[in-house]
Design a protein that fits this description.
single chain; 592 residues; alpha+beta
């Protein structure tokens, strides 16, 4: 194979912008914990005629408008057929501590006051540059795969919904979360390391909703640790990827990590992933052989025909969010009087929906059949009809898979629950095993964000995840049938699949209400860079060191590929050497 890897900074604005993930308007960035990166790999067959690209980004999720713009730039640079929407996957780690505003649908832009051009541009530029690096560094090499379990790396946030799945199905599994990490290792023909990617499903929210520092969270920390380890023995690139009781109110059941604070929890969960990744990378893997291929289709998810187990047919729905979406989750509580597991609306909130939301943002009111379609979800936000100032949810999604020898990467446009992920993985593997392919991996949060995908049984519980399964109770079966139907094409005839209806691209038509940064100013007699609170000359080992400067607003310069700070050591009488910069775990940059 021809193999290349690349990494580039996508951090974006680190101050005065809303952060993406918790939908909390008061969670505004005020500094930097760890820089965010795009990590890419390219694999081509030996004749360089069929290539696939996989990108994992330290962001809450992939964005449709970002992928569309990335593909435009790649086509301008490499021609119309080399890297396209069909063979490029962009996936998010699901950190909830990155900048918001990089979408083209209103629901996920409300708390960020619309689109944020700096966020969008940073992601687009950094993703393209990471792919450029991978393209320019391609070498002949081999691929290897390994799997092992991560010890105590995740928990199930909605175990009561999981219990809705059939007992005989649950008894096939020891845990109510997926424990397995899958590693993909790249090695040059001369034995040199090229890179490594891992997938392990854990919600990347060790940094909680009180955090105001941009952070790549536990996935980014694990990646940085592995990269630092490999740099000691030779440059390498690594990317980690994936994805209590149940009282009525989630505020009484708050999810915390295993550490004494969110920074400690981030470190602990990262190192648990790191230890398994090291075992796999150095000791536990087998070589992949076979073809490199891809399959992709745009699908309108609002009216997909679904055949049920009893032979009857039904359809998916136009998107909508349920009441329990507004209740939030155990790691990010919602507002007002909403609770989890609401299967009936209330007169008050139905009136708010019908008399305010529908009249203000819907060109056409939803019919009764729309609400019936979502049953037993009571729809709070009829986003499928909310079209002012533009669409509130996507309707066209990417259905995409990559083949790397005996491995299939199932790129799904949202967050699949544990059992939903197991089912679609099993369906794809069963379809592929006749062709000698037995490994499949779900890569969530890929290409476009459509919130959650629960099993039909979990949907009836209407916890946060079911309420956020936007295309109705049969969303999962629609995806399961579509992905399974494309397996044969992936293996035999990738070019035979119709492209499907193209999604809209409204990058230049979006609303951006975030005010621009004001001109920088300092008190009379002071200059930017002057020290306010200096450091001491001597510190005990392990002490925290803090220094305060008059500084410019970091929104004026995002320092992509650079740093806002450097900790230097005097290595001789005249030479200062950087020891840490702003992306290192040992530093934190705060701005106010």
């Amino acid at each position: 194979y021809l193999i290349g890897v690349g990494r580039y900074d996508v951090t974006g604005p680190v101050a005065q912008v809303n952060m993406m993930g918790y939908a909390n308007p008061s969670q505004t960035a005020a500094g930097l914990h760890q820089r965010l990166y795009s990590r890419a790999f390219i694999v081509c067959n030996n004749g360089n005629s069929s290539c696939v690209v996989f990108v994992t980004v330290d962001s809450g999720m992939a964005s449709q408008v970002v992928k569309l713009e990335v593909i435009k730039r790649l086509k301008e640079k490499y021609g119309q057929t080399r890297y396209t929407e069909r063979n490029v996957v962009i996936s998010g780690t699901h950190s909830h501590s990155g900048p918001a505003g990089f979408f083209q649908t209103m629901l996920v832009e409300v708390t960020s006051l619309g689109a944020i051009k700096q966020s969008t541009d940073s992601f687009i530029d950094g993703i393209v540059k990471s792919i450029d690096q991978a393209h320019s560094q391609m070498r002949r090499g081999s691929m290897h795969i390994g799997t092992d379990n991560v010890v105590e790396g995740n928990i199930n946030r909605s175990p009561s919904a999981y219990l809705k799945n059939p007992l005989e199905e649950r008894e096939r599994y020891q845990y109510n979360t997926e424990q397995e990490m899958t590693m993909l290792k790249f090695k040059a023909n001369n034995g040199d390391p090229i890179g490594m990617f891992t997938w392990y499903p854990v919600h990347c929210t060790s940094m909680n909703f009180s955090n105001q520092l941009l952070s790549s969270d536990n996935k980014g920390r694990a990646s940085a640790l592995f990269e630092r380890m490999m740099r000691k023995s030779g440059e390498d690139r690594s990317g980690n990827k994936s994805t209590c009781g149940i009282p009525p109110r989630v505020k009484n059941c708050v999810g915390f990590g295993p550490g004494v604070d969110m920074f400690d929890s981030t470190d602990i969960i990262a190192k648990r992933q790191l230890e398994t990744a090291k075992i796999l990378y150095f000791n536990k893997y087998e070589q992949l052989v076979g073809e490199v291929s891809w399959v992709h289709q745009y699908v309108d998810m609002t009216n997909q025909s679904v055949q049920l187990d009893d032979g009857t047919n039904t359809t998916t729905c136009k998107p909508g969010m349920g009441y329990s979406f507004a209740a939030g989750t155990t790691d990010g509580a919602g507002a007002f009087n909403f609770v989890q597991s609401m299967t009936e609306g209330t007169p008050l909130w139905n009136a708010v929906r019908d008399d305010i939301i529908v009249k203000v943002v819907c060109s056409v009111p939803p019919p009764k059949e729309y609400y019936d379609c979502h049953h037993p979800k009571p729809v709070l936000l009829p986003t499928g009809y909310m079209d002012r100032p533009y669409a509130w949810h996507p309707t066209i999604v990417d259905v995409q898979m990559l083949r790397l020898g005996q491995l299939i990467i199932i790129a799904v446009p949202g967050e699949f629950t544990t059992m939903a992920g197991r089912r679609i993985k099993e369906s794809v593997q069963n379809e592929a095993k006749a062709h000698g392919i037995h490994n499949a991996k779900v890569a969530g949060l890929s290409n476009v964000y459509t919130h959650y995908i629960t099993t039909p049984e979990e949907y009836t519980a209407q916890r946060y995840e079911g309420a956020s399964t936007i295309y109705g109770p049969h969303t999962f079966q629609a995806y399961q049938q579509k992905y399974t139907s494309l397996v044969e094409s992936l293996i035999l005839l990738p070019d035979s699949v119709a492209p499907g209806p193209s999604p809209a691209d409204i990058l230049n038509e979006q609303i951006e209400l975030l005010p621009p940064p004001q001109p920088d100013s300092v008190p009379s007699g002071k200059s930017i860079g002057d020290v306010i609170d200096d450091v001491n000359g001597i510190f005990p080992q392990g002490a925290e060191i803090s220094v305060t400067f008059y500084g410019a607003n970091p929104r004026h310069n995002m320092k992509l590929g650079a740093t806002y700070l450097a900790v230097q050591q005097l290595t001789n009488d005249t030479q200062w050497t950087d020891v840490f910069v702003d992306t290192d775990w040992e530093t934190r940059f705060l701005w106010k």
